[in-house]
Amino acid sequence: MALRRPVPPGECRQCWAHAYDPDIHRRLAPGQDCPQCVAHMGGDHDGQIVPKEESAWW
Questions:
Q1: Is 2:22 a contact under the CB 8 Å cutoff?
Q2: Please, what is the Cα angle at 2 between 21 and 44, to 5 degrees?
């Protein structure tokens, strides 16, 4: 069963899912890198960042 945690504001949806859903990497062999994670490592989150709420005190 997948662990489903809501993605907090300011975090990337893909990074969060790959960090907290064990089913995503279950099919990989020991020591094998996830191709999606490797492709995503350059810091290009491609619009997947959950927007933060605007601060009300400004």
A1: yes
A2: 25
Interatomic CA distance for residues 47 and 30, integer angstroms: 31
Q: With beta carbons less than 8 A apart as the criterion, state whether 5 and 20 touch.
A: yes
CA–CA separation, 11 and 16 (whole Å): 7
The DSSP secondary-structure symbol of 57 reads T
pLDDT digits (tens, 9 = 90+) for 35-54: 989 888 877 787 889 998 88
| Per-residue three-class SS string for 3-55 | CCCCCCCCCEHHHHHHHHCHHHHCCCCCCCCCHHHHHHCCCCCCCCECCCCCC
φ, ψ of residue 53 to 5 degrees: the values are -75, 145
pTM for this predicted structure: 0.71
